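Appendix B. Extra example for self-study. Work through it before the problem class; the solution is given directly after the inputs so you can check yourself.
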Amino acid sequence: MKRKNDDISTADRLELYRLQVEIRDCEKRAYDLFLQNLVKGTSHLSLGQEGIAAGVAMAMQPGDLSFCTYRGHAHTLARGVSMEKVLGELMQRDNGLMRGKGGSMHLTSVEHGVMGSYAIIGAHLPIACGAAWRAQYLGQKDVSVCFFGDGTTNIGAFHEALNFAVIWKLPVIFVCENNLYMEYTPISDVTAVPNPAGDRAAAYGLERIVIDGNDADVVYRTMQAAFARARAGEGPSLVECLTYRHSGHSRADPAKYRPKGELEEWLKRDPVKIYRARLAEFGIAEADIAEIEQESKRKVEVATAACKAAPIAPVEILTTDVYADGGWAWRN
Amino acid sequence: MDVLMPQLGETVAEGKILTWFKQIGDDVSEGDNIFEVETDKVTIEVQAITAGKLTEIRVAAGAVVNVGTVVAVIGGAAAASAVSPVPAPVTVLSAPAKAAPVPPSAIPTPRPSGLLDPFNEVRTASGQYGGQREANGLRMTPLARRLIKQSGIDLSRVVREANARGADRIRERDVRAAIQALPVIPTASEPARLVPTSVDDAVPINTIRQRTGQRLAESWRTAPHVFQAIDVNFGAVDAVRARHKDRFKAQHGTSLTYLPFIARAVCIAIHDFPQVNARFDGDRLLVSRDINLGIAVDLSHNGLVVPVVRRAGDLTLEGLAKAITRQIEKARTGTMTPDDLSGGTYTITNNGSFGTLFTAPIINVPQVAILSTDAIRKRPAVVETPQGDFIAVRPVGMVAQSFDHRAFDGAYSAAFLSRLKQTLESRDWESEFA
Amino acid sequence: MAELTYRDAVARGIAQEMERDERVVFLGEDVAKAGGVFKATVGLYEKFGPLRVRDTPISEQAILGAAMGAAMTGLRPIAEIMFADFAAVCFDYIANEFPKLRYMTNGQLGCPLVVRTGNGGGARFGAQHSQSIENWTMMIPGLKVVAPSTPLDVVGLMAAAVRDDNPVIFHEHKSLYAMKGEVPDGEIVDSLGTAKIVRPGKDATVLALAMMVPRAVQAAETLAAEHGIDCEVVDVRSLVPLDTQTILSSVVKTGRLFTVEENPRLCGWGAEIASIVADEVFWDLDGPIVRITTPHIPLPAADHLEDLAIPNAARIVERVLRVMNG
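Solution. Structure tokens for the complete assembly:
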């Protein structure tokens, strides 16, 4: 049954789908490249969490800033960074986003407002507050968005940042991707409250917001409201998005700690599948949907080829950019 | 009991008395305000902690004193002054309260940095100035070692200076004192510069030559040189040399010269006269059991160096030939290491190629002797046969030794030279190539 | 020219920079309305207002994190960590976040901020409020570290730190806050990475930092007057960048090196300098390099015990004498 267009336009829906599909395909490719030992080190994939990345990115305006964790490929892609630059960084090639100096956990593209991916749990929440403070101080209208997982809600910096953001009424949005596991442990085993972010909101005088993170439309709508509040000077929001990750915590983790059947249940609620059905529901042509899917696969192939052909970075960059003058001199 | 300027806040060091609420002679009850004080941080009333009469005011209103200073005394019934803990003046800072006055120009300008290499962030000092135990077990500081080597001063002089001070190690001041104690000779110190005339061309003397020159001058000054020469018939050597020189050249790429034969003969003669292979050390000779043979090498008239063939006494003739060639090559190509230049016990200077008859060389102190070999030329020689004496043409050259007369006498040196001659003339040199 | 206390110099330096550049903001605990627990930032709130001088909750991580976020996006923040010991509470930012940002992002992001903190002992605060932690900050690549010893240096180095585009840790010394010194009028800007020879000499080089500087000078005067040993006292001032040229030239001149360090013995700042000197100018050393430090213990609260632990002029004299004559 075809539904009439609601508050979300066809164009926006196509874009939301495109974002999710491209994230899915690029992350799958990263998974395979890791198995081929072309992606080195560690890699934290967002397979299954695409709805959040897409929904938030759609609600952002140019100039808005995002801060994410080491599980940041999805958010980096969602803000428009090319697959080549992301895969290049994972493959530690010279064409990577940071030429291999940062690695998978630190994807940054200031040009796209991706203000860093942070590997120390919780560190970037106060940093996002600082960026928001700057906007407030200078009278600028951008909003800072901060992504983190359920595990982060138990670390000190989370609490400091929330308190800080509320008392200074900062234009920052805290987005908790609750994928039910703090690394290898169920979050419920280690958290005093059932909804690790949502149930803490009241402690900071914030509204409890817990939503289905696998429905990009829900995420999009919720975030639009949060952005509006922030831009109006009404202060921060804390949004808990329920989701599930299809793979382990990192590439090294086969996730055998999950109870039988849990993954299968959640795969039924795969955000990409949900959204494909949503598009159909709103009468979007199968051809248009297929075109997005094919284009995504094509982009992945082009990016992969480019990265495989790219050289590694010249060794001279070993010591560049320690200090602002580009060098590393600690002495004269 | 003493009334002190109280500690009114962390990091506060002094206070100013604003007002006295009591006069001398007033009765004071416990808890009365007695004065008002102003510090960096706060203004506050100070109460009496004891009862009595205010007998002294030592600091007037308006004055500033350090925390802990006695500002007044309450006498009388409170002989409980003994009971009240009188804190020692709190000298929180042993720093002077004032920084030294500093002119505005005291803001230093940054020094520029050279290019930093990440794997050589710290530039290790270069230079090899000998080991720390070279002075007969007396240790030397790194600075002392460097100064000794660079000044060329005889280590024994320095040791003497250190011993005179009863020092257990040699330091800079011992080296400087030894240098100071050197007899002043105009050429040794910086003389007034000569004024070139219009027909003079100033030719700079390179560093190697300057350094060598200093050492030679020092040697000449300190060691009483005696020169002895002996003529040697190289016929036997020549015969063997002729038989083997082509094969030697083909095998080793260099010519088989007289030098290795002479060096081998020197080693044999040293065996019988070991004291020529020694270093002079004041009241004793350090006679070396190894023969570390220095071979003086002329660097294309640009100075002299003396690379050392270590343990030459253990080498065969061919081994000596190769080693000598190798050391000379290193000297000529400037690839010597500190080991190549140190530890010499006897030196040979070979002037044969210049055609001279004899040369009186300068001893390479602290060694005690040096051999010079000069041109070996066809000369008439007396050959003794059972049929009588005949004149024949033979290759003959002068072999001469300068020796330090403090180490031994002319008879000893002459005996060494005779042994050397005898070895060169009568040894079965062919057997060296077996 | 005026005579200023070290604490007033802090406020003066910050004010100078805040006047010059609107992007300079200042945050910390009790720094605004109360003027700081050490009264080092009195008057700034009144002068620059509540938007630029801000009181924070007791949230060291938030303080440094927010300073970093603001610095990354266009401001030039100064953040206070009240007692240097508390750096341990927010050490993630000092060790992992500020100094690595530029490198990991391949130059896309920088962190032009200043963390000023009350370092050092002598105030009887006990072990957790008296530490000298300059060595903790010296050892992390990507930071700059300074520790002024006079009011003049406070102003000049504060200006240099604020103007530097890198994260700078500014170690003020709590027990120097009451110290007075001459400070000229007008703008003062010093440079990071420069040491200062505060007492020239020829027999031995004595390096010192912050509160140890006046003690080293005092010891040098005693050594000269009573023992004929003429020490050159160098105020290191900047641990990173390190003015190795000044230090090395001094050691080449004197042949001897002593360091006077308030930090506890192991891995103190003097250990690194001793290593550099022994490496680069080995052949100019006429004796062993000796470090005079606080022992490797927590600091006690009792005044006589604390005074015993932290190097004082008498101990410096005794050690230099023993080593020079030994």
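Self-check: The radius of gyration of chain A is 20 Å. If your reasoning did not lead you there, revisit section 3.
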